[in-house]
Amino acid sequence: MLKICLASTLLICFTEFVSAQSPQMMYRDTSRIEIPFAKDPHVVFFKGRYLMYYSIPPKKGEEKSGWNIGIAESQNLIDWNRIGEIVPDKNADYEKNGLCAPGALVKKGKVHLFYQTYGNGKKDAICHAVSKDGITFQRDPSNPIFSPTGEWNCGRAIDAEVCEFNGRYYLYFATRDKAYEKQLLGVATAPSNTDFSRDDWTQAVDSSILSPELPWEGKCVEGASIVNKGGKLYMFYAGAYNNSPQQIGVAMSQDGIHWERLFSEPFVPNGKQGEWNSSESGHPHLFLDKNGRTYLFYQGNNDHGKTWYITNEEILWKEGIPYRITK
What is the pLDDT of residue 6? Predict the structure, then answer.
């Protein structure tokens, strides 16, 4: 009896310790390599449920399967069930090496997915697909729909984020400089009546709209996620390369092109040693729910990228400034 009571006490203590150390949501996908690995989250509400799109790695023992996109559903933003995946289209040669880093929006009863090709170096570009059910997607015949031009970048485009603002659509992307060392952010625009095909996109400026400047950003800013609050755009972005550690910053814009950082330190830092995100808190996605509340989804790990989890937390606002509820 003593052993049973002791075991029960230890179990309770362990459960309380895990609860204290871990966020409410800790999504994992073990379908590809048998250990938790899910990155680059993006969430939409579509036909009565939340859908989360995220990056999944090549299948164990099948390197040529490439990076792909997983799909999970939820009714409460906490409990998620994997329901599918998006793999390279056999008729789309441009994505045969892989696809990942999804961004999505709902327009006229359809989910529009924006994603990057992977494994092509400087030739990786942004692509577009559309779905009536949020699971099965039809590729845009004009894919890839966008690659940047100009001497300020190498021609690569990744980490797509598309939002509507002031009667236009803005496509935010990450690229690198000519030396392929620094990760930068750029933007393109399309008219409000766009079908998101290639000919509708125009690079807004021939320069980066945000580049690494702060010490904690290292040589990288990427993974922009945009939300419109009170007629202003707020960008949650990742600073520094993966596990450097990558951390999350915030910037604000009046016009979608010129951005000002709100904080000099990370808005969401990596965790302390031993915590689930001690290696990084990265690749943010700020989700604006139908009730007006905002939730920040992001990835993290504590083993320098051997595993990856996705979590979320609610973000509150005061006088146009976001803040977190910290324990």
Answer: 33
